Amino acid sequence: MSEDMGLSLTFGGVFLWVIYSAVIIIGGLGWNYLWAWMDDSKPSTKNPFIKTIMSWMGYEDGGSNYSFNGYRKKGGGQEVSGDAAFFKPLIILLPLPWIIYAILSSFLVPIVIGIVVGVLFTARLARRQSKLFKNHAEDKNAHK
Question: How many angstroms separate the CA atoms of 53 and 38, rounded?
């Protein structure tokens, strides 16, 4: 693997994280304003995407009016900010292009292709055998 390839895979992970963060921030604002417009109400100050991600990570809303403040572990605990909604997925998104590259360039691809071809040939054989047995069951003179 060339140095350029490694650099592009690393920047790919950073790019995924930047896109993820932009979607969370801009999408959350858009979601708030869209629902406020539909309900003829005032938009909330909490970003619904950050709130959802924090609830997936085991946090609940602590009652603060700001997007990044006021989350605490379910069942009580220390209050934390919503920054974890951005930085914990970074652990997954940064190595993701490397993982995809490793899977596609490894021995797994030929093994999967071989398994698929084997299943296809087995299905074809089973279909041909079922036709043959069906003909023999219908024709009484086929066994003589």
Answer: 24
Residue whose C-alpha is closest to residue 50's, from 78, 80, 16: 80
Where in the chain are the domains? 3-106, 107-144
Contact predicate 101/9, CB 8 Å:
yes
Residue with tokens 């698929």: 116
More confidently predicted of 8 and 119: 119
- Residues 140, 51: Cα–Cα separation, whole Å: 72
State residue 59 phi and psi, 5-degree precision: -110, 155
Other beta carbons less than 10 A from residue 17's beta carbon: 19
Reported confidence tier of residue 95, pLDDT bands at 50, 70, 90: confident
The answer to whether the CB of 85 falls within 8 A of the CB of 50 is: yes
Q: Is the pTM of this model over 0.70?
A: no
Q: In the chain, where does DSSP find H-type helix? A: 3-39, 48-56, 84-87, 90-93, 96-104, 108-138
Query: What's at 3, amino acid-wise?
Result: E
Cα 37 from Cα 44, distance rounded (Å): 12
Alpha helices in 40-107 (DSSP H): 48-56, 84-87, 90-93, 96-104
